[in-house]
Amino acid sequence: MKRYIGFTVVFVGAFIVLQQLSGALLMMLYTPNISAELYGNTGSTIFASEGIHSVSPLAIALLALVTAFGVTKLFGKRLSSN
User: Fold this and answer.
1) Of 30, 44, 56, 60, which has fewest CB within 10 angstroms of its CB?
2) How far is 55 from 8, CA to CA, in rounded Å?
3) Are 35 and 81 in contact (CB under 8 A)?
4) What is the 3 state secondary structure string of the chain?
5) Do the beta carbons of residue 4 and residue 69 sit within 8 Å?
6) CA–CA distance, 39 with 17 (Å, rounded to integer)
7) How many Cβ atoms from other residues are within 10 Å of residue 66's Cβ?
8) Cβ distance 63 to 18 under 8 Å?
């Protein structure tokens, strides 16, 4: 039971960190359309997933899953060797 709790904690932590990093990266790569603001077209439409800059939440979850699995295996081996 202790392993499952540890895996869950590491998975949730890795998922949150990866989501934050992904959001920061997408914000850095975002280039706003200033010409639309200058000509009065200030619609509330936001295109969040444009081509290569979109990161799937499933991909982030899988990366967090692999990270959590690796961390729990590493700590499991260290604890069992002591």
Assistant:
1) 44
2) 23
3) no
4) CHHHHHHHHHHHHHHHHHHHHHHHHHHHHCCCCHHHHHCCCCCCCCCCCCHHHCCCHHHHHHHHHHHHHHHHHHHHHHHHHC
5) no
6) 39
7) 12
8) yes
Cα separation, 36 vs 70, in Å, equals: 47
User: What is the per-residue pLDDT across 51-69, written as a single tens digit (0 to 9) for each?
Assistant: 555 567 888 888 889 998 8
Distance CA 56, CA 62 (A): 10
Domain residue limits, the chain? 16-28+55-82
Q: What pTM, to 2 d.p., does this model score? A: 0.59
Residue 8 banded pLDDT, cuts 50, 70, 90? confident
- What pLDDT score was predicted for residue 72? 87
Enter the tokens of residue 74.
């590493």
31-40, long-range: CB < 8 A, 24+ apart? none
